[in-house]
Amino acid sequence: MNMETLRELAWTDFFFYAIVSPRELYRRIKQRDSGMLQLSFAVPALSAFFDIIILSLNGAESGFFYHKISYGWLLFLFILLLKIIVYTALIDSSAQFFGYSGNIKDTVSLVNFAMFPGLMFLPVYYIIYITGIAPGFFYVFLSFVFFCWFILILAQGISEMYSIQSGRALAIILAPAVVTGVLMFFTFIVFIFSLVGFIAN
Amino acid sequence: MEKQRKITLAILIMLVLISIIAVVDISTRVEKKRSIQTGMGMMAAGPGIAIVRIDGPIELTGPGGFMGKPSGAEAVVKRLADIEKDGNIKAVVLRINSPGGTVAATQEIYQKILSLRKKNIIVVASMGDIAASGGYYIASACSYIVANYGTITGSIGVIAYSPNLKNLMDKFGIKMNVIKSGKYKDILATHRDMSSEERALIQQMIDLSYHKFVKDIALGRNMNQNDIYPVADGRVMSAETALEHKLIDQLGTFDEAINKAKELAGLDADAPVYEEHLSPFNEIFSSMNSFFSGRLFESRFADTTHRIEYRYMQ
Question: Residue B23: its chain A contacts at CB < 8 A?
């Protein structure tokens, strides 16, 4: 992405369509503009930073804040990138399980841009925090709303990617979460049985 | 399309701005709370003692000064001024670990300490590794001086220096073009020998500063100037020798200085001690500033500014 492209502001289209038309967003991603993948990682970078600020607004006021927005941001970003990679790999595997071809590069970009509306959490929550209207409730409520928005963008993007119904796309997205949840549940049960057996002996 | 892109860009800029505002907002509240915790906000844990630290060469503005905050002697004077206004601070322990510094910077701190004493705030000096020349000048303003056995102190005197690079410049064929308004305008110039008239002029300044030094010690220590002159020949001395010459009051540690301050101020033994705190941002920017201004390594001869100093040259 050179200066000319930056000036044209064509790169802002990704952010715009992430909000208004996730299907158009995927069509733009598919065109594979140069620098698009790198640009998409600006969203998780900002998201990690904004998350730290929101947590700091809720937390105790102490000098630890300076560590949180410096080293904490790097840690959050690292964890977020790890989550994106793992989750994208799972979605891609899930799509292949349903009989579609894998497309991990576009899925990574889609997941990254799908997080963009989540950046609105900070301004909205900051207003609530300043006015002091039930910040605890709104924190949980807004987290849920923005998570649903993220899933909605992803579902429509995946739907466009494989030309399938949104419901089927939702199944592709949620299948890894369900499988992981079930596996974790059984692992927990086995762990509890092992622990009880160990204590009993 | 063009309008839509501009709107998106505006949203992105707004997001960044809000995040900056939120960070500044949180930082301000953190600093405010910290200021209260360190006892400078009147509402803390009751009457106590403040610690003020003077480390390294004394200059008016030292390394640091993040976001317009004062540094060097100005920062020390500001902290003393804050203490002066704070009704909770009954005594100050000035931890000095300095070989001295510039005349003006030293005198600024000296005067501020006297101002505190006039308001019945006890000021106890605790000397660290070294409190010589300007370091001792500052200590002399205090109500009481405690020094460790190993403290190097004394060095009562004034010094001015500049390298004479004439031979070096001649060797390399470097000549200086000097256009000046008066014959003394390039006094202490490094490219030529100093004339006897110039030396006399500088010596006059040095002598004036020296007599002021001795006079101020006598005032701060409540001594006769004639008792100071015999040891005011620039010599450094151990704390024990300084005690013999009544230049200090007690041999002891930093903790003993704190206890003495509590005793003199009539405070309980468990009275709170308020330390000075720098925010991590300030610390980071101070060290960055030091690094970029090249102060992490001291290069005396590369420093072309001429100064007259109350300083022990190690």
Answer: 53, 69
Query: Residue B18 is nearest to which of A10, A67, A122, comparing CB atoms?
Result: A122
Please give the positions of B annotated as active site.
Answer: 133, 185
**Pair (B137, B52) in one structural domain:** yes
B39 lies in some domain: no
Contact B8 A12 (CB under 8 A): yes
Interface ipTM: 0.80
Residues B292 and B207 in one domain: yes
| Contact between B280 and A15 using a beta-carbon 8 Å cutoff | no
Q: Tell me the two tokens of residue A100.
A: 């579609």
The domain that holds B213 is classified in CATH as: 3.90.226.10
Exposure pattern of B238-256 as b/e (b: 16+ CB <10 Å)? bbeebbeeebbbebbeeee
Contact B147, B127 (CB under 8 A): yes
* B169 within a domain of the structure (yes/no): yes
What SS3 class is residue B133?
coil
User: How far is residue B103's CA from residue B270's CA, in Å, rounded to a whole number?
Assistant: 38
Residues B154 and B221 in one domain: yes
Q: Which class for B295: exposed (0-12), middle (13-18), buried (19 or more C-beta within 10 A)? A: middle
Q: Could you report the per-residue pLDDT of B141-167, keeping only the tens digit for each?
A: 999 999 999 999 999 999 888 889 999
Q: Which residues contact A171 (CB under 8 A, 6 or more apart)?
A: A98
Q: How many domains does chain B have?
A: 2
Does residue B66 sit in the same domain as residue B8?
A: no
Residue A127 in contact with partner chain B when CB distance is under 8 A: no
Q: Are residues B96 and B166 in the same domain?
A: yes
Same-domain status, B103 and B159 = yes
- Assess if residue B259 is contained within a domain: yes
Distance CA A37, CA A48 (A): 18
Residue B10 sits in which domain range? 1-34
Q: Which amino acid is at A64?
A: F
Q: Which residue of B has its CA nearest to A121?
A: B15
| pLDDT for position B281 | 54
Query: Which one of B11, B26, B34 has the shortest CB-CB distance to A57?
Result: B26
Name chain A contacts of B9, Cβ cutoff 8 Å: 9, 12
Contact A9 B19 (CB under 8 A): no
Same domain, B151 and B22: no
Q: Do B64 and B84 sit in the same domain of this protein?
A: yes
pLDDT digits (tens, 9 = 90+) for A78-90: 999 999 999 899 8
The answer to whether the CB atoms of A12 and B29 lie below 8 A apart is no
What is the tens place of the pLDDT at every residue in B181-227? 988 998 888 899 999 999 999 999 999 999 999 999 999 999 999 99
